[in-house]
Amino acid sequence: MSRINMKNWISQVIQSKERMAIPIMTYPGIELTGKSVYEAVTNGKVHFEAIKALYDQYPSAATTVIMDLTVEAEAFGASITFPENEVPSVTCRLVTDYESVKALEIPDLGKGRIAEYLKANELTAEYVRDRPVFAGCIGPYSLAGRLFDMTEIMIAIYTEPETVELLLTKCTEFITSYCRALKSVGVNGVVMAEPASGLLSNDDCSSYSSVYIKKIVDAVQDETFSVILHNCGNGGHCTKAMLETGAASYHFGNKINMIDALRECPSDVLVMGNLDPVGVFKMGTVEEIREATLNLLQKTSEYDNFVLSSGCDIPPEVPVGNIESFYNALNEYNKKN
């Protein structure tokens, strides 16, 4: 494992003359190893081999683990569907009212696939020694939405806020425990995916997401472990609330104007994003990816804290040539600047 001082690493990235890239990307590695998505999300060794394949082939400034937003929900007892080569999904709500939320037990880390994800992270931390390794986890509001139903929780924050607050408290306690376990196996941080909070106003995002994320950040973030808050649902309306969390870095989706996000964020935190993972990486041509990458790099050139990335997790079945075009464009930009 590599105990990198993350505060120093962030400072070095900001001071670097070369632009760096950290795409949220693991699924293409599964294809490189000839395995299925199902195998990777259920077996920590297969998961690690996919990450290793990407690490060995591409020059990302950090290594990321699968962004699977069903792992924590499954640990609570939610039913999950597992397509062979698609991302898993929650099939139905687990809790429906205050009494069912009150009865909901906070799971231990032996439930569901948590152990397999800890194994994947530990193996990656042991193998990758020259750059940070970022685990993945879900944010508290997004987890609560999967347990309560996303439409229902949007209504419940107004009709029965005490139910939502209790559920969020339980989700936060579990995510904190999970992040502590991830930290203990040697990874250098976690990309916390909180896309559902992008459906909220800034004030509601603050009350039902950021307050709880800050508790997690305060519990686990230090010089050796950074929280990177990802919100691909934010179109620019709740960036202020995101910043209230105190996360070390922020990752934005392709819905937002990246310049607006950079203007709003402090200059001493990393701001990552935001090429469309489907419209650009998966559906674009090699030349379209080159143009989109260079265009984003040019637009963000005056912001030293910008890190080139995908707007969200790069999905399965992205052509290898498209990924290579992304990195080639980055190299092209760095040689000219």
TrEMBL record:
Keywords associated with the record: Methyltransferase, Transferase
Question: Its GO biological process terms?
Answer: methylation; porphyrin-containing compound biosynthetic process
Domain of life of the organism in this record? Bacteria
Task: Describe the location of the Uroporphyrinogen decarboxylase (URO-D) domain by residue ranges.
Answer: 32-333
One short Pfam name that applies is URO-D
Keyword Transferase listed? The answer is yes
Q: Does the keyword Hydrolase apply?
A: no
What GO MF terms are annotated? Answer: methyltransferase activity; uroporphyrinogen decarboxylase activity
UniProt name for this protein: Methylcobamide--CoM methyltransferase
